[in-house]
Amino acid sequence: MKLKFINNNMNIKYISNLINVNETGKNHVFIIDSKVKKLYEKLFQMIKDQTRIFIYNANEDTKNIDYLKRIYKFLHTNKVHRNSIICVIGGGVTTDIAAYAASTYKRGCRLVLIPTTLLGMVDAAIGGKTGFNFEHIKNGIGSFYPAEEVIISSDFLKTLPTKEYKDGITEIIKMSFLQQSNLQNLLTEDYNMEGVIKEAIRTKLELCEHDLYDKGSRRLLNLGHTFGHVLESISNYEISHGTAVAVGIRAAAIFSLKRGFINQEILEMIIKRLEKFALPVSFNSKYLPEIMRNGESILKQDKKADDKLNLVLFKGLQKLFIYRTDELNEIISLFQEVSDD
């Protein structure tokens, strides 16, 4: 995977990149998040043939097989072939489903990702995971298909809503707990965001390059996600990904304390790091009854589970490990401790 950073002058350099991948006769196409298309309308007018743009109304409800079929039909109509470039521009939802389409159409087309959210830049567009939601399971169907190129422009963050910005910060803080990361030293009071983004990407790539198919050390990137996916599913995505993962990290830390893997001091240091960036450490207790009823069934359907669940826990502030367990009742009970009740 080729990684390219574009700093400043986005409206010149970025357009140049769009033109370059839109070579005449190559059947290159664009899949663009509708919000991004609206925000940067003049930018995308530079694409001469507007019929080669698929505008995707990105949210978790449209990240499904019906919209995947629409993307396939668009690719078919535009006679996309395996040497065509599918250029995807948008946040994590957009890059997930569009990259899956690219990985499966004609058994795989060339793929360029241009993430426009912080979460997309440090997580969704990096590492080759693709997918869409199926039967209420987030990314229940997916593939591993690293992009040919990922283009990062932090200029997009200027128009990013605060809530979505915090979702990205959560993923960065999650990676700061990894032993391989130097993020904890970069996240000072006056941190440089571009430097933080580069270190977050470097950290994730270091894990992914040795474990592309998520069978070993890459699973450490799932810190907070097992709990988080339950919260997202139960709330029908009213609880954002960032909020769910932040609460999930706290739940994982509490579970680590209960199992004797860390002490109270480490637990407090973990929570303090979350609170330093004003990340939520609890969720609305109105979702608790539904979690108690259906939480276990969601855990059992976790796409990373077999007979047991792979839970990422703490052995120290900068030391994570995989804990295999079938104690689903105890995991569900933790949600009571991290609710705001």
Tell me the layout of helices and strands.
Blueprint: E1 2-5, H1 10-21, E2 29-33, H2 34-39, H3 41-44, E3 53-56, H4 65-77, E4 85-90, H5 92-104, E5 110-115, H6 118-124, E6 129-134, E7 137-144, E8 149-152, H7 162-176, H8 183-186, H9 193-208, H10 225-234, H11 241-258, H12 264-276, H13 288-300, E9 309-316, E10 319-325, H14 328-337
Parallel strand pairs: 1-8, 2-3, 2-4, 4-5, 5-8
Antiparallel strand pairs: 6-7, 9-10
Helix pairs in contact: 5-6, 6-7, 6-9, 7-11, 10-11, 10-13, 11-12, 13-14
TL;DR of this structure?
The protein has 14 helices and 10 strands. With 341 residues, the chain is an alpha/beta fold.
Please provide a written account of the structure.
It is a single chain. The chain has 341 residues and is of the alpha/beta class. A six-stranded parallel beta sheet has the order 1-8-5-4-2-3. The protein contains 14 helices and ten strands. It folds into two domains: 158 residues, Rossmann fold (3-Layer(aba) Sandwich); 169 residues, Up-down Bundle (Dehydroquinate synthase-like, alpha domain). Helix 5 links the parallel strand 4 and strand 5. Helix content is 45%, strand content 17%.
